[in-house]
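Sequence in, structure out.
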Amino acid sequence: MASNNLIGDDLAISEILEKPIENELIKVLKKRSNSNNFKFSIEFGSKKGANFMGNVYRILYEDENHNQSSLILKIAPKNLKRRGEFALRQMFLREIDMYDKVLVYFNEFQLSQGVDLEKDGFNEFPQYYSSISEDLFESVFLEDLRIRNFEMVNVRKETITFDHMSAVLKALGKFHAISFALKDQQPEKFKQLASLAIEQFWTQSHDMITEFEKCFEVLKEEKCFDLFEKIKKSVGDDYYSTIMCLASSQAAEPYAVICHGDVTSNNTMFSKDDEGKPNKVKIFDFQFTRYASPVIDLLLYLFCTITKELRDQHYEEFLHIYHDSLSDLLRRLGSDPQKLFPYEALLDQLQKFGVYSVFVGSLLFNQFCADEESIKKVEDSDCFVFHFSKDSKAAYNKRAMDMFVGLDRLGYI
């Protein structure tokens, strides 16, 4: 028995949960509550701007014995024009495949090699409950990480610390290690899994080109004309040809892996130890998964999220944290990291693909810095119209300059 509670200003559940989604939700709640008699309500599940490609809700439920819990429901936008422009159906099907097929097999493979998932395996993603792949009703039902005291970092108000960054890099090292091990030991199975991660996001879009050029123009605004010319030379005249090359598996081989593709502060949550320091991370939102260079997953945090000061002080240490984590799990999975992905190869991949940062940074900095009231969902007709006050434009320029200067200092552009 489900209640039809309200969300926000008299927005009824019936306005959000169309019948196929409500039916699946009832099935999930029956299983999760182990009861046929429960009630539920719904609230928004993420802060504004955190989930550009979907609508996220928190389902709060209570069984007949007054036991309470919650889960996360992510629903695809309905706007047909935007669904076509941004391949939203394909993006949701990608995420469903990741949770339902790829990550399930990653777990099975780790267990078959004697890895303790909870102790030291790759387990840094939320529990998957169910999904809907039916056209126009695409949805994913996931664990609510707040129950385990995981929280998102609001980069507008908080700073990503060394401990945050270490947790992310250790998790990514383990995540990528599984791809390398499977490529080594089960190449046909890995080929099958990698086929579920073919690039599908970067398509021609005038709006995105405008955003790229807006970001590059910051160099002129800050009187860095030589660096502007260097960036323009690095990205070329055909931005999308450059992007597709950078995001391709062919250019990354023999080191291509199944990447998350969008590892940002909006897609990570952290728990803390008894001293209040971040000690664990969970990574979610697998819509942008791609088979590409492993460094694609490192760049978004290293150059688009953390401060220049933290990066300058710990950059080499961060790379070793990532590679040590990857190497450790790779050995325990039965493969040789020195053969499959030596540290020198990591440095070469960063040199080769580092410029990818400028394209994703051009989009992320809007989300991080624009006036919050101007941030829209992808289904809105003006989703790429961002407004900046004097302060928010200054914040945008600083992030862009820190990225450009960092990439230039390391010789990535």
